[in-house]
Design brief:
Blueprint (H helix, E strand, L loop, with lengths): L1 E10 L2 E11 L4 E5 L6 H8 L7 E6 L2 E2 L5 H7 E4 L11 H7 L8 H14 L15 H15 L3 E5 L7 H16 L3 E5 L6 H5 L6 E7 L2 E7 L5 H9 L3 E6 L2 E6 L5
Parallel strand pairs: 3-8, 3-9, 6-7, 7-8
Antiparallel strand pairs: 1-2, 1-4, 4-5, 9-10, 11-12
Helix pairs in contact: 3-4, 3-5, 4-5
Length: 258
C-alpha cells in the first residue's frame, strides 16, 4: 500500500528526512509521534509525491509515487492536512463532492455520496453553509467528511483532532477506528498518544507506533508495549508517568501523574 525504501528528503540543502524505510500494508494502523519539526508532516507530504525524494524511492499502491497522476494518487490515499485554508465561497456539500473528482459519475451521485460522508463525519448540519464562515472545529469535521467522500483505501491524517473539543476528539478517533476496522489503512500523526486508544478499542497490539526525531525513525513499538512510556519520554525529552483510567493506560507528564 505504502512503502518508503531508504528515503531522504532535502530542501535547499537542508535534510528533512534521513534514510527512512517503512511499509504500510492494507489494513495497517501506524501512528507517527515526535516533537515539533521532527519530520512527521514531511513524511506524509513525501508519501503523496508533494516533496521529491533526494534518495530512495516511495511506492504508493505498488507504483512509484512520482509517476502517478493526481487522480491515481487520489484513488490510493486521502490526506487530511494539519492546517486548512478555505478562501473560496463554497458550501461544505460542494467541497465534499469535489473531493470525489477521481470518480466519473453524475453530479447527483457526487452530491449523494458527499452528503453521506458529511453525515458520517458528524458534519451534516453544515452541508449548506459556506466553509469559510465555519469555526475551526466545524471546518475540521467538514474536512474529515471530504476525506471519507474520497473513498481511498489509505487515510493520511495530520493531527486530525486539531481545533476539536475533547468530546469531538474522542468521537473522531472512534470514527477513525471504525474506518480501520472496516479494512482501511491509517497513517496518523498525533501528539496525544492517549487518543489512539479510542481508535484501537481492544486492538492496541495492532497499532504500530513510530517515533520520529530529527528526520529519522527513532524507534518502532506498539500501543500496548510495556516500554512505550520510557521510549516516549526519551523522544519528547519529558518524563512521562503512567496511570489507569477506566481500564485504559494513559500517559501524563510526571509532574502531574498520580
Amino acid at each position: 500500500m505504502l512503502e518508503f525504501d531508504r528515503v531522504s528528503v532535502r530542501v535547499r540543502g537542508v535534510p528533512l528526512l534521513r534514510d527512512v524505510s517503512l511499509k504500510l500494508a492494507p489494513g495497517d494502523f501506524v501512528a507517527l509521534l515526535g516533537p515539533n519539526g521532527a519530520g512527521k508532516t514531511t513524511l506524509i507530504r513525501t508519501a503523496l509525491g508533494l516533496l521529491p525524494a533526494a534518495e530512495g524511492r516511495v511506492r504508493l499502491g505498488g507504483q512509484d509515487v512520482r509517476r502517478l497522476s493526481g487522480r491515481q494518487r487520489a484513488a490510493q490515499a486521502a490526506w487530511l492536512p494539519q492546517h486548512h485554508r478555505f478562501h473560496e465561497e463554497v458550501s461544505a456539500l460542494d467541497l465534499a463532492a469535489a473531493a470525489r473528482f477521481r470518480f466519473i459519475e453524475t453530479r447527483q451521485a457526487s452530491l449523494d455520496a458527499a452528503r453521506a460522508a458529511l453525515t458520517r463525519a458528524g458534519a451534516a448540519e453544515f452541508a449548506a453553509r459556506l466553509v469559510s464562515r465555519l469555526s475551526g472545529g466545524e471546518q475540521q469535521r467538514v474536512a474529515f467528511g471530504c476525506l471519507l467522500a474520497q473513498q481511498a483505501p489509505l487515510l493520511l491524517l495530520d493531527e486530525p483532532a486539531n481545533h476539536l473539543d475533547p468530546a469531538q476528539q474522542v468521537s473522531l478517533y472512534r470514527l477513525i477506528g471504525d474506518c480501520w476496522q472496516q479494512g482501511l489503512g491509517v497513517l496518523c500523526i498525533t501528539h496525544d498518544v492517549n487518543l489512539l486508544a479510542h481508535a484501537a478499542r481492544g486492538r492496541e497490539s495492532s497499532v504500530r507506533i513510530l517515533g520520529v526525531q530529527c528526520g529519522s525513525l527513532a524507534f518502532e513499538s506498539r500501543l500496548d508495549a510495556p516500554d512505550l512510556g520510557p521510549r516516549l519520554s526519551e523522544l519528547f525529552g519529558l518524563r512521562l508517568g503512567e496511570a489507569r483510567l477506566e481500564g485504559r493506560r494513559v500517559f501524563l507528564p510526571a509532574e502531574v501523574a498520580p
